[in-house]
Design goal:
The chain has 6 helices and 5 strands. The protein is an alpha+beta fold and 232 residues long.
């Protein structure tokens, strides 16, 4: 008989104790990059956002009217001057205008009327140049991570009034609601069929305030609620 082969002897390397070495120190997060915001600041800034202003109107119609009047007057005067230089007589309208300006006194009614109209037009043009216009639009708050110069949005007043009216109609007890949105005030007039009018008014103020916050307006208008009891 042949003896059974002896079982394999395990290698001593398998049971050798390995030194894990010195304990590793906790790694610190890398320093933030230059100009980067700390964690959580972007989210908070997105909720706050930047305060934006109303967009400026292009004023296409006033600019076109002024340009057309100046172009017509300058063209007529230029044509008449060229005709005079060519040896012809001046136009009748230019001779009459020169005579009227030379003979009429400063206190004449037509002189004062013309001066008043000219001054009014000048004031109107200055007001158009210095004011943004587009009073029917409400500027929206831009995100904090986007400068206002790169992103500007606005909401029409009628659209904001429709959203606020729908929110007011969801309040229990309200049968009719009329909402008007101005630059600094939101006026809501509500008819109440049942419930206490004061409770309905408190609920309306809360609901309209929440809906106003969802609109994201740059300058939220003040809310004014008027409640009227209707029994018929």
């Amino acid at each position: 008989m042949t003896p059974d082969p002896s079982p394999p002897v395990p290698s001593p390397e398998r049971f050798a104790h390995r030194d894990p070495g010195p304990p590793k120190e906790p790694t610190e997060p890398p320093p933030p990059e230059r100009g980067a915001l700390p964690p959580g600041t972007a989210a908070a800034g997105h909720k706050r956002g930047h305060t934006t202003h109303r967009p400026w109107s292009a004023r296409r119609l006033p600019a076109a009217l002024v340009a057309a009047v100046i172009l017509a007057a300058a063209g007529a005067a230029l044509v008449d001057v060229v005709a005079v230089r060519a040896g012809r007589q001046a136009a009748a309208w230019r001779r009459q205008l020169a005579d009227e300006l030379a003979t009429r006194p400063v206190g004449d009614v037509w002189m004062l009327t013309g001066a008043a109209v000219t001054a009014a037009l000048g004031v109107w043009l200055i007001a158009l140049a210095l004011t943004p216009g587009l009073r029917r639009r409400l500027p929206l708050r831009s995100p904090a991570d986007c400068p206002p110069s790169q992103l500007r949005a606005s909401l029409d007043r009628d659209g904001a009034a429709a959203l606020l009216r729908d929110a007011a109609m969801r309040v229990s007890g309200v049968s009719r609601a009329r909402v008007r949105v101005r630059r600094h005030r939101i006026k809501a007039r509500v008819d109440v069929r049942f419930r206490d009018p004061q409770q309905v008014k408190d609920d309306l103020v809360t609901v309209l305030s929440e809906e106003r916050g969802r609109l994201g307006l740059s300058r939220p208008p003040r809310i004014v609620v008027r409640v009227r009891q209707r029994t018929v």
